[in-house]
Amino acid sequence: MRKSRLPMVLLGVGLAFLYLPIVLLVVYSFNDNRSLTVWTGFSLRWYHELLADSQMLEAAWLSLRIAFATACGAVVLGTLAGLMLARFGAFRGRALFAGMISAPLVMPEVIMGLALLLLFVSAEQLVGWPAGRGVLTIILAHITFTMSFVAVVIQSRLVSMDVSLEEAAMDLGARPAKVFFVITLPIIAPAIVSGWLLAFTLSLDDLVITSFVSGPGSTTLPMIVFSSIRLGLKPEINALATIVVAVVATGIALAGFLEARRARIREREESQAGRV
Amino acid sequence: MPAQDPSQSSPVPAGAAAGLPPVAPRTLKDRVLGVTRRLGLTGRGGVILGPYAWLVLFFFIPFLIVLKISVAEPAVGIPPFTKLVEWVDGGLDLHIRFSGFQALFDDDLYLLAYLNSLKIAFVSTLCCLVIGYPMAYAIATAPEKRRGPLLMLIILPFWTSFLIRVYAWMSILKDEGLLNNLLMGLGLIHEPLKILYSDLAVYIGITYSYLPFMILPLYATLEKMDHTLLEAAADLGARPWKSFLTITLPLSLPGIVAGSLLVFIPAVGEFVIPSLLGGSDTLMIGRELWNLFFNSRDWPSASAVAIALLAFLVGPIMIFQHFQGRDQDKGAA
């Protein structure tokens, strides 16, 4: 059967569509011109301006701290949720739980943001907590929507994982908690790491939900970026974008390198095991 | 087999010498376990309690509050909402809320915004499908070694900021932007196309931003497909296009549905893309909700818009969860 080349060509075109805007942003971040369309010469002035923008830097630092706390909370709750869905069989209220965990994957953010804000306002009036909106309410809201993504990552890893190791450990008398920490957790560790990173990125990037639940003094980076580009183009943002792309690319390259090395080691071990 | 008997591990049980049955010394841990077990709190139950309680508190209850605020009755002397009542207008709260909900049906603005959102989301989803399907297909049929890196390339833009990717299109689409410069340089057009701040820019922005969400589920179903079916069809003389239409396409239907819903549902309520790329006449309901909340400070009406939007989306969300649940049930079995 002759394979058609058409899909490969279309894949190339599609990838160009995905990457061209990002490449253009990076290239024009080094342009010595405000217009963003005419190349007038290489310059780092937008980086200097970005680094001199204390409001932007403060917001970036706040966003990073929120993303860190969110990722840690979401990874615990999301892993437990993934475990419940993949291993706990039918427990009471499973259908409701499955619905609640997968709905945030598609729920429009304006709805989630409004709902969470009304919850925080009502809770404050009812029990006095959380007092006002700020970093705490942002983190709580972020954990709520990112834990679903973590749960999906963990659950799909658990479903594809070989359960015979867990069964063997249980047959030998290990308690469920011990099985989880000694057998399951090391095996799904890479999925937990990618879940953490996913939650971190989603939190760092969120604008809509954050805008609803934030308060005075808790302006995050996306909020600053949004309000500045809403009025038109700003070359500083290109410099910011380039830094984000560089960090992400480095991280992915590192992950790819580590993964390739792991695969090589595994291969070698397997070939040695085969020889015995 | 019961778990290890605690008495076996203690050196000399108290009653052993007297020939009595060994009595396990009750440690604090045993006592705590005993109490929790009597309360029905096993380790398993404890694990379930955490995420369950979180989601009920931060996901389920908030929707009840939105519902309540959007259709509140005059008897709302309940403390939680008194402050919200102040937000509205003193004693007129009932009347305003009621009319706020009613406005959705009376005011053309909201109806048009709903319909336009559905249209934009639907067309963008189709664009994602048309662009994404061949891409997913190409990755799924690529040599196994190349699939991982190719998939990585699809996911990678997702890790860079969504806001920044939308911003990139602003500089491409604007009047003296790169696209217009290119087209004019080629002599294809003589005056710049007004794309930025129009519906067209919103279509482009949504298609671009949500494309990876379409490709990933499509790839997952195409990759699992049994390729011997295609070989059998080819052996029997089917042309590639015919075997694609009669075998591949129907078998990838779950991926098509999942991917389309993953794009369509959030796109209906999209706020960022229409407000950055759309014109002032680009009506989308997510934007109206935002304006009601942040500009008009009319929380009850914003809640009413949210409830109406949710009512639109409950069907698609349930279908999405049905497909999502098929994987979950595999785990439960």
From TrEMBL, chain A:
Where it sits in the cell: the answer is: Cell membrane
Naming one, the record's GO cellular component terms include: plasma membrane
Please verify whether the record's keywords include DNA-binding: no
- Record keywords, A-Z: Cell membrane, Membrane, Transmembrane, Transmembrane helix, Transport
Membrane-topology annotation of the record: Multi-pass membrane protein
| Transmembrane regions listed in the UniProt entry | 9-30, 59-83, 95-123, 135-158, 179-202, 237-258
Which one GO biological process term can you cite for this protein?
A: transmembrane transport
Ranges for domain ABC transmembrane type-1: 60-258
On whether Acyltransferase is a keyword of this UniProt record, the answer is: no
The family assignment reads: Belongs to the binding-protein-dependent transport system permease family. CysTW subfamily.
Protein's name in the database: Putrescine transport system permease protein
Tell me which species this is from. Answer: Nitrospirillum amazonense
Automatic annotation (TrEMBL), chain B:
Determine if Endoplasmic reticulum is one of this entry's keywords.
no
Start and end residues of each stretch annotated as Disordered: 1-22
GO cellular component terms, A-Z: plasma membrane
Gene3D superfamilies attached to this UniProt entry: MetI-like
Q: Which residues form the ABC transmembrane type-1 domain?
A: 114-320
Tell me the PANTHER family matching this sequence. Answer: INNER MEMBRANE ABC TRANSPORTER PERMEASE PROTEIN YDCU-RELATED-RELATED, PUTRESCINE TRANSPORT SYSTEM PERMEASE PROTEIN POTH
The family assignment reads: Belongs to the binding-protein-dependent transport system permease family. CysTW subfamily.
In Swiss-Prot or TrEMBL terms, this protein is called Putrescine transport system permease protein
Supply the source organism for this entry.
Nitrospirillum amazonense
